Amino acid sequence: MASLPRRIIKETQRLLQEPVPGISAVPDENNARYFHVIVTGPEGSPFEGGLFKLELFLPEDYPMSAPKVRFITKIYHPNIDRLGRICLDILKDKWSPALQIRTVLLSIQALLSAPNPDDPLANDVAELWRVNEAEAIRNAKEWTRKYAMED
Amino acid sequence: MEELADERVLEEIEALEAILMDDVSVKKSSGGTPYLVEADVFPATADDTDQQYVRVTVEVKLTLGYPDTPPVVVLRNPRGLDDERLRVIMDQIEEKCQSCCGDPIIYDLIELVREHLTSSNLPACPCTICLYGFSEGDQFIKTTCYHYYHAYCLSEHATKTEKFFKEEQEKLPQFQRSKTFEVLCPICREPIKCDVETLSKAPLPLAVQSACIMEPDAKLRELQDYMSALYIQQKEKGGIIDPDAADSKVLLVNEPYYVVIKSSQTVNGSSTSNSNPFFGSGESCTNIGRAPPEEETTTPRWRQRQLEQQERQRQRAMQQRDGRPMQQPKPPKPPKPTKTNDDDDDDDDNADHEPQRSIGRQRRGRGRGQKINHRNR
Description:
The structure holds 2 protein chains of 2 kinds.
Chain A: H1 6-17, E1 23-27, E2 34-40, E3 51-57, E4 68-71, H2 101-113, H3 123-131, H4 133-148
Antiparallel strand pairs in A: 1-2, 2-3, 3-4
Helix pairs in contact in A: 3-4
Chain B: H1 7-20, E1 24-28, E2 34-41, E3 55-61, E4 72-79, H2 83-99, H3 106-119, E5 140-142, E6 148-150, H4 151-171, E7 183-184, E8 191-192, H5 196-199, H6 206-210, H7 218-236, H8 243-250, E9 257-260, H9 301-319, H10 339-350, E10 353-356, H11 368-376
Antiparallel strand pairs in B: 1-2, 2-3, 3-4, 5-6, 7-8, 9-10
Helix pairs in contact in B: 2-3, 7-10
Protein name (chain A): Ubiquitin-conjugating enzyme E2 N
Domain UBC core (chain A): 3-149
GO molecular function, one term (chain A): transferase activity
């Protein structure tokens, strides 16, 4: 832990002291670059009420490179594939070192509020989202209820 | 508002306008009585604007009885100043106003603010790259878009983005390539002009050198426990993405290819079981399945041996797949959501497969635990 970059320590402390509402990110006990994350489904979205687990990893050259993030909890969303991988520009070529763990997670939460079937990662989901949005939303709600809600 | 302006006030305003010229603006009522003075204040740097890192607008509202009653002063549009510093300045302004009743004091107030800015001509906002502030002795940059970075931090950013730019260019056919690379401001993405070579000679920011180390506390442990408890709960409901199930389909496709290394038995204790298959694959749609290049070479030899062993076990397991005889799924409900669970959750879903660049025998699976060890040594 001694040689962990200062910035990561600072971000971690702030995440714990002033958590973002609806988002929780906790470093793994064995690896301070690995975060266990919970993002709550945004109000008014089909994911409302769900607690979605994600994993987030800060690569060697973070913050010059984007964190690696994926969903662990199953989620029915056109921009998130079966393996939980997320299609989001700031995780790829639009990454900027001025972004942080908290801003990345906020963007992911925002993605839940604004699915974009025209830029799909999960093709079957996106297709349904395009041709029959009502049914897609029903599916998303069903998955949320089934997989992401606390008992 | 008095119709007839106080002589003292008129004289003072005249003097202010003569001294400060464009930096001051005076608003007057229809009768010509001044009631508001606004002054843009910069640190005294012999008019070298490049060296002015902070600024603020002082707004002085002249009260009815001014100068016998104190004016109302507000600081507006601060740049590079944080709340704390603004509060210190405001306190001194209040003090000055109370102690100098009866005298025209606007010029004194402006000078007071200017002295403050000059003595601490350093942006108080942190550098958004390292998240630490600017200390005396740090080399830093004010961009044309008025954002501040340590020279060191900005050079890291510039170097990295240029490298990325070149790599991306090489992937494009000749006619689509663009020659010009621009460093973009990390905050607003405006192009910035900077000389990377000079920047890169700057030393590490002082605050970064001296920051303290974080120790996990009880609250953190509690959160970690909650995380693993929730994982278990979702796991039981089948809500956790099962890479095995996904794999069996993905395997039919050339790319992406995932090697399943079946190892619920845990090689060498729990630490090896933490590997994280998806990192490196959180790519956007265009690049699914491309693995991060850096990791290819970093697998230690001992780990490779472990992986080979796991691979053999996997193949054995595959042969017996129909009956699923060897590796039973985990016991349904572990007693407590503590350590054991934690181990187990990693075993099962995260640990055992890695995105591959192509179909091949070389594997790069490795434990989360190891990753940090050799990276942070």
